[in-house]
Structure formats: C-alpha cells, structure tokens
Amino acid sequence: MGRAIAITSGKGGVGKSSVCINLGIVLAQMGYQVCLIDVDLGLKNLDVMLGLENRVIYDLRDVMEGVCPLNKAILKDKRENNLYLLPACKSVNIHYFKGSDLQLVVNELKQSFDFVLLDTPAGIESGFLYSIACADDVILVSNLDITSMQDADRVIGILMKEQMQSIRLIINRLNPHFIDKGISIRLEDALNWLGIELLGYVFDDESVIRSNNRGAPISLAKHTQVYDCFAAIAKRLNGENAALPKYREKRFLQKLFG
Ligand SMILES: Nc1ncnc2c1ncn2[C@@H]1O[C@H](COP(=O)(O)OP(=O)(O)OP(=O)(O)O)[C@@H](O)[C@H]1O
Ligand SMILES: [Mg+2]
Questions:
Q1: DSSP state at residue 78
Q2: Which atom of ligand 1 is nearest to the CA of 174?
C-alpha cells in the first residue's frame, strides 16, 4: 500500500508544482513507482511542465465521472520509467467536484504506486481540503518571505484543525545572498516561526524556471545542486538521515548558460 502525500502551500506561486515534479522524478529514479495527481482544477500545470500536454486525452474528472477507467487516464512519463501523471481537469465546476470521488481515485492509486503525490491548488478552498482529506502526509512549501510564511502558518493551523498529524516543510527558492542582505528571513527564524519539521530546502535557481518552461524538469540531470536538494529530500522522506546540501556558488560559465 503506497503513501499519498499532498504538496501544498498558503500563498500561490511558491513552487508546489516544481516540488511535486522534481521530488516525483527523484523518487522514481530511486526505483519507487510514483504517480502525480494534478488537483489544481482548471489551472493544470503538471502536464506542461512534464512535456506531456499533447498526450492528455482523459483527465481526473473523466475518471471521477466514470467516463474512463483510471488506467486509461494515467500518462507515463517520457523519460522516467517509474513516473506517471493523472492530469487535472481542463475545466471544472468546483461545486460538482466531490471529495469522496477523489478519495476513491487516490485509494485505487495507492494499491499500485508507492507514492501518490497530489499537487494541490494554492489557498484554503475546497480543492485544498479535498486533497488533504485523501493524504497520509502533507508537505508544506514556503518561500522565505514574510507573506509566504504568514500564509504557511495559517495553513498549518487549518491542517491541525483537520487532524493532520504529519506536516513537514520544504523551503523553496532559498537564496543565501537574499538572507545575507536581509531580503529573506533566516532559515532558523522560519523554523522557529512555523514550528514544524524541516524536510528540506531547494535553492533559488533560474535553471528551474528554464527547465519548467521546456517541459524537461531540472532533476532529470543529476549534476545540479537543485538535484542534490531533491535527492536529500527524497531520502529524508524515506526516513534516512540525509544531510541537506550546502550552497555552492555557480561558476561564471554556469551563470551564463544555467
Ligand atoms: N527553486 C526554484 N528556483 C527558481 N525558480 C523556481 C524554483 N521553484 C519554482 N520556481 C519558479 O517559480 C514559479 C512558480 O513555481 P510553481 O508553478 O512550481 O509554483 P506553484 O506553487 O505550483 O504555483 P501555483 O500556486 O500557481 O500553482 C515558476 O516560474 C517556477 O519555474
Ligand atoms: Mg502549481
């Protein structure tokens, strides 16, 4: 029986989808069977970020409405053998979206996959609550700015109210220069503020944006420090005591060509 993990945030645009995809890739490379579900209804991203948008025929809604069986809607990644995607609905009226249907889909996926990663919509609307209700664990993604932290703190309160026991934090876009200049808050201060376990961090790196735009996620290449971040996160998710990587300054040519 696999684990369903909701990847969520308070504020939008902090990197949930990027975390979902790259963590999924690294877990798949480790040999786990991984299925990503795009629960960002109507605002789907994962198919584009994986370069699978032209292959989508059926989606989550078709499965929930019984238009097609689950195995027909799931897409296999082009590069990672163990990675699959259940795409989001192209359009959906949230009033017709039933949490119990999502629960059925997630439960079925957990029979065949080691990890089911749910990319949840930002904020605390129904899509978020439905995803949380299906999840065994939550990964909360935040940046190190005040608004992102405030919204993350609010979400922790809601998750606790929903009796979620396992909530761990990923700080995305960590930029040591911004911390030194006082633009971002310090990691220790963020951890004291939120009071939840740090699963890991991911450095701020423009190659992530470039890779996302190309539909070729950054973790497909193993020589980057962003990859090292995700590799450490994947190990810690599996209970290993992996150290988090230290920031390495990019060399001149790396800065030029990413
Ligand atoms: N570590 C990173 N370094 C640099 N840019 C990043 C990093 N992670 C994500 N980004 C960029 O930040 C933007 C938002 O990322 P992403 O779409 O993953 O966020 P999201 O939380 O899923 O957004 P939404 O709430 O809209 O679904 C994208 O342009 C992405 O390429
Ligand atoms: Mg997203």
A1: S
A2: 1
pLDDT over 90 (residue 136):
yes
pLDDT at site 34: 98
- How would you class 134 by CB atoms within 10 Å of its CB: exposed for 0-12, middle for 13-18, buried for 19 or more? buried
Taking the domains of the chain in order of start, what are their residue ranges?
3-257
| Distance between Cα 127 and ligand 1 center (Å) | 19
- Cβ–Cβ < 8 Å for 170, 233: yes
Q: Check: CATH 3.40.50.300 for 3-257?
A: yes
Report residues whose beta carbon is within 6 angstroms of any ligand 1 atom: 9, 12-18, 40, 45, 122, 172-173, 202, 204-206, 208-209, 212
Report residue 88's pLDDT band, with 50, 70 and 90 as the boundaries: confident
151 pLDDT more than 90: yes
- Tell me, what amino acid is at 157? G
